[in-house]
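Researcher: I've got a protein sequence and the SMILES for flavin-adenine dinucleotide. Could you write out the 3D structure of the bound complex as structure tokens? I'd like something to compare against our soaking experiments later this week.
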Amino acid sequence: MTSPVSSAVSSPSHVAPSHVVVIGAGIVGTATAYELALRGVSVTLVERREGAGLETSRANGGQLSACEVAPWAGPEVPGLILKWFGRADAPFRLRPKPDPEQWLWLMRFLRRCRASARAERVLPNLELALLTRARLDAYRENFAAEGRTLDMDHAQNGILRVFRERHGLEEAREGIGRMTQAGVEQRELSPAECVELEPALASSFQKDEIAGGIYCPSDGMGDAHLFSRELAAAAERLGVRFRASEEVEAIEVHDGKTTGVRLADELVAADAVVVAAGPMTARLLRPFGLRLPIYPVKGYSVTLPLEESEAAVPNVSITDESRKVVVSRLGNRLRAAGQAEIGGYDLTLEMPRARSVFQALTGLMPQMGALEPRAEYWCGLRPMSPDGSPIIGELASRNRTIRGLYVNSGHGTLGWTMGAGSAASLAELICGSAPQLDLTPFSHKRFSL
Ligand SMILES: Cc1cc2nc3c(=O)[nH]c(=O)nc-3n(C[C@H](O)[C@H](O)[C@H](O)COP(=O)(O)OP(=O)(O)OC[C@H]3O[C@@H](n4cnc5c(N)ncnc54)[C@H](O)[C@@H]3O)c2cc1C
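Model: Sure. Here is the predicted complex with flavin-adenine dinucleotide in place.
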């Protein structure tokens, strides 16, 4: 393997764990197991579903979007929630529940709806996104060294954000300088340049529905489900024990030290446990008095299988900022995703909401309307933190570290964009190497729990 891990040195006082259990085989858990295995750690990966990448990582928007790492919480959001309240097709919907977990999370989220709070999170998220890019390159090299291809329908054709209203474009323009300073090239495009770059937008252009765009050529897209499957298999080839169809019922902690996990009829011993259970993370950690603010935010996607002769299919990934939908081409499929519903853990697929994603797609690209009979709808729960950054690191309860209990979750809208970087950083921390990234901004201690 050409570039397996960073060459950071281990701290002399740190003893790397002899066996680690990773809970959850989504993007984040499979990458964490793989990164640990690359560092020679013995790992068991436990997943309650029958395979990897079958929950939130199943059919997301596909965007690997370093250029769009700003959190959702922002000054415009409370107004939008009120404006759309009660509308079945609202891109952002609050479904109040008699559930203190929801209200507490919502209060924290609303407190983050300030421009300064949003800006504060951009650079830490960007660093994780850029590390993810580097790790995905390294994974591809590792697969090539094994004589394999990391098959995840990846394409680096850039992401184009299109704006229908000028004021949206003007606000977004302010971010270009910040991104350029951080080394991520972005450029503003006129409406004509947008359609020149992506001819599939011709109809919107002709209807004068594009005020302009911002293009980030180094961003890309790929299929997170394929990635999770590929990484789980690669981790197994490195010796990871992948236990699918097994649910962790509890994490075992004795005398402030993690000792393993309890499955239905077995105790799996480990001296470290990583909770990467997506939206279920907070619930698994509650027995330790931890109230991690990770709450599910439901989203929908529609996937359209493409035939070779299909006309005017986009090759560039698009974010339609007005319709709140993202569009990615994943090999011979087109995926559109959107919707945010704060309404608990219910995974019922509601057709009016699912179809509103399809309608947003055909609003932007009417030529896709003909593909409706092939549409495959899906919904999933984003594991969201209130401030839009994941929680990564070792956990402490009442200011006492629970030795060997780690979390890697809460990536919300950006799990694909930031997952591999989070995994590499946490693996470095667990193994006692000097992390490439400062993980302080991702500590759970930023929330008073
Ligand atoms: C509609 C939509 C569009 C999105 N678009 C994008 C995008 O374009 N770009 C982007 O970067 N991100 C996007 N995201 C976000 C991204 O998909 C998520 O952040 C990411 O999938 C979260 O991955 P995860 O591994 O944390 O969680 P999951 O994929 O949910 O994995 C957690 C796993 O843990 C397992 N598990 C839970 N509890 C237990 C237990 N007790 N025992 C054993 N296993 C357990 C679950 O079965 C699951 O497989 C989107 C999300 C949605 C919903």
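Model: The longest strand covers residues 295-305. Residues 68-102+153-219+295-384 form a domain with the D-Amino Acid Oxidase; Chain A, domain 2 fold (CATH 3.30.9.10).
Researcher: Great, I'll pass this along to the crystallography team.
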